[in-house]
Design goal:
three-stranded parallel beta sheet; binds flavin mononucleotide; NADH Oxidase; alpha/beta
């Protein structure tokens, strides 16, 4: 998921299906949370989590009384801070301020991560802190700050409008001229030095993508839009293509041995200086046909 899609789809959601969130999804979201920026990397946070349906339902209305929807989330993350564990060189006020900012950074990353997992969430600040402390067994030195409810959205709420940039942003000094471009155009999605065995790409638009030194041996492509793609250093032994649009794609020195093309348009394809021994089209050996045609000439 590109960053613009996270921005488009993350909404504070207040209607859930009741479907569970898995432990694996929770662990991924927590990983995103603990990678958030935090003061001095002191990580003065603690995450109390539950996937337990009974515990989730028990939060309403005692701990959270602003909506029954919370009963139907699949996961609760109560983010707490332990400000005293921040470096003693910070004064009390600074420590507390930093500690709260840390939890907010973690919460933001968790909610964005939830979006990439196809989940929805809602940030709750208006809950009973003392009751939450008892409920989750939060020790005295920690302070509950944010409660996140995460689950499967019953419906995606409409995006809530933001104030115009001119109202909330002041450019100071020379900041260049305004140019409206999407975040993805400025920072195109890139995968570098990745190992993606068993990766699944479903309904993926790869048009204008560039692949360098890619090993696609054994890969299967169906219904793929791969128009105008560029490939160099490509190994595709045993790859299978079904209903793939490779119009105007450029392949430089690829190894395509044993690749299967099924239901593809190869119209106006030019094959030059290639080893086509054993190549068949609908079961007919192409090399024998070419040899026969050459002899005829
Ligand atoms: C500090 C903070 C406290 C919030 N507290 C609550 C809350 O108690 N209950 C709730 O339903 N939403 C709460 N929200 C969610 C906001 O209402 C929501 O982010 C805002 O309306 C913008 O909508 P959006 O997140 O869909 O863009 C809170 C958000 C923040 C950042």
């Amino acid at each position: 998921m590109q960053f613009s899609e996270i921005l488009d789809h993350r909404r504070s959601t207040r209607a859930y299906t009741g479907e569970p969130v898995t432990r694996e999804q929770l662990d991924i979201m927590l990983e995103a949370g603990v990678r958030a920026p935090n003061a001095c990397n002191a990580q003065c946070w603690h995450f109390f989590c539950t996937l337990d349906r009974k515990l989730i339902e028990g939060l309403v209305p005692e701990i959270y009384n602003r909506g029954d929807w919370l009963r139907d989330v699949g996961c609760i993350i109560l983010i707490c801070t332990d400000p005293d564990s921040l470096e003693p060189r910070f004064g009390a006020i600074v420590r507390e301020r930093f500690a709260v900012q840390d939890t907010a950074a973690a919460a933001t990353q968790i909610l964005q991560c939830a979006t990439t997992l196809g989940l929805a969430g809602c940030w709750m600040g208006a809950f009973d802190r003392e009751k939450a402390r008892n409920y989750f067994g939060v020790p005295a030195e920690m302070e509950p700050v944010i409660m996140l409810g995460i689950g499967h959205a019953a419906a995606e709420p409409p995006a809530r409008p933001r104030k115009p940039m001119t109202e909330v942003v002041t450019m100071v000094g020379d900041c260049g001229r305004a140019e409206k471009r999407s975040v993805d155009e400025i920072t195109p999605f890139a995968i570098r030095k990745a190992s993606l065995p068993k990766a699944e790409f479903d309904n993926v638009n790869l048009s204008r993508a560039t692949f360098n030194n890619v090993n696609l041996s054994g890969a299967a492509f169906t219904d793929a839009n791969m128009k105008n793609t560029t490939y160099s250093g490509l190994t595709m032994q045993g790859a299978e293509f079904g209903c793939v649009d490779l119009r105007d794609a450029t392949f430089a020195n690829p190894d395509l041995s044993r690749t299967v093309f099924d239901g593809c348009s190869l119209r106006d394809v030019q094959i030059k200086n290639c080893d086509i021994a054993g190549m068949t089209v609908d079961g007919i050996a192409v090399d024998a046909l070419i040899e026969a045609a050459k002899k005829k000439d």
